[in-house]
Amino acid sequence: MKRARFISPFLWFLCTLGSSSSFAQERIVPPNFIFILTDDQGWSSTSIGMDDRFARSKSDFFETPSIDRLAMEGMRFSNAYGPAAICSPTRRSILFGQTPARLGDETFPDTHHPRTNSAQLTLPGLLKGINSSYKAAHFGKWDLRAEIFPEDLGFDESDGDTRNAHGNLMTAKDDKWEAVFLTNDPKRSSSITRRGINFMERQVSQGNPFYLQLSHYAPHVDMQTREASLEKYRNKPKGARHNNPAWAGMLEDMDYTIGQVLDKVASLGIAGNTYIILMSDNGSVEFLPPVPSLQKLKHPDTFDQPLRNAPLRAGKWTLYEGGIRVPFIVKGPGIKPGTMSHEQVGGWDILPTIAILAGYTGSLPEYLDGGSFASILRSEGKGEVLRKNDFLVFH
Predict the structure, then answer these.
(1) Whether 126 contacts 351, CB under 8 Å
(2) How far apart are CA 280 and CA 46, in angstroms?
(3) Which residues form a coiled coil (predicted)?
(4) What is the pLDDT of residues 162-214, one digit of tens each?
(5) How far is CA 332 from CA 4, 72, 338, in A?
């Protein structure tokens, strides 16, 4: 059954400006945007590393060749932050360009549901206001936990109001940190990607610019992997920080589908006009299984083994660096391949950045907390993000 669509007054305002010189639709080809959001992937869990100054920023066990390829073709951010240390507030923040502190918790459904407050700007609404030809799709984990569907916020296609369970195979919680499931579609990474590729193909054939968000369920528990991937890591020497074969297999299985997206962008001939952003929603858990809540804030030296997010402290559920600093890579036109930025960026900066990259030159709403890092992308990683506040707020 189709859900009712809500038209934001701000979206209407943007559309009324569509023919003005600030948009210059007739003079530019609107870029495409692909946003890949991974789940619980720690800052130090890639095989390329997020900071070349620190050897331990790369994994001592995991292999992520497609993410490494994306990094070599784009720009890595060594100081990038998920808006929160858990998934739902991060996902809300990215869509609305506001910090979780502003978005609230129990109050969020009332303040940001289009039925009660349709003036709030969203990522797909922004792009459609800039150019009405934009099509938007969200596949994978949605998890706003607010009875808000992707179509309510401007997406044309989606998997619906999905949560963790939609990517799981388990039926109980008591063994979710140890149980391993073998499947040909681990955490639905392949099927999510297939739907995304199909969406891209259709939009390119119809001449529509697009925004595609692929929100993976991986590498969040439960642990699912292909049999061949599990066997590969069972036979590989274990690292000091990373040593779980099932987790490693799950991560590489997801990484393989990222390579499929990169290949499809190339084969469709749209690489020169497509921005690809990859980030994790928050840091990974500090151990498998995680320690009890009261131990999460302990100093790393009190444990008899290194934490999985080392050299960062702690992990998911905490506001130490291990809980909020995340992998973050951007590839696209004007970005020098293989560059790195040490400037601080956050998930709430994505909406204002996409606005600039899409050609918007007007003023964005005052209630946004994020700022654009587009100039950093175009300046080999140097510059600053101009926000209302010159600090990052976590809550």
Answers:
(1) yes
(2) 11
(3) none
(4) 999 999 997 677 788 999 999 999 999 999 999 999 999 999 999 999 999 99
(5) 34, 12, 12
Within 10 A of 12 (CB to CB), how many other CB atoms are there? 13
Instruction: Say if CB 363 and CB 377 are below 8 A apart.
Output: no
Burial 337-369 (b: 16+ CB within 10 A, else e): eebbbebbbbbbbbbbbbbbbbbbeeebeeebb
Question: What angle (nearest 5°) sits at the alpha carbon of residue 263, between those of residues 259 and 265?
Answer: 115
What is the reported pTM? 0.94
Name residue 289's amino acid: P
Q: Is the dihedral of CA 237, 71, 158, 196 positive or negative?
A: negative
Helix residue ranges per DSSP H, the chain: 9-16, 65-73, 87-96, 100-103, 108-112, 123-130, 189-206, 227-234, 245-267, 321-324, 350-357, 374-377
CA distance 102 to 395: 9
Residue among 140, 145, 136 nearest 160 (CA): 140
> Does residue 222 contact residue 169 with C-beta atoms inside 8 Å?
yes
In sequence order, the 6+-apart residues with CB closer than 8 A to the CB of 285 are 40, 308, 315, 316
264 contact partners, CB below 8 Å, separation of at least 6: 197, 200, 201
Is the distance from CB of 311 to CB of 100 less than 8 angstroms?
no
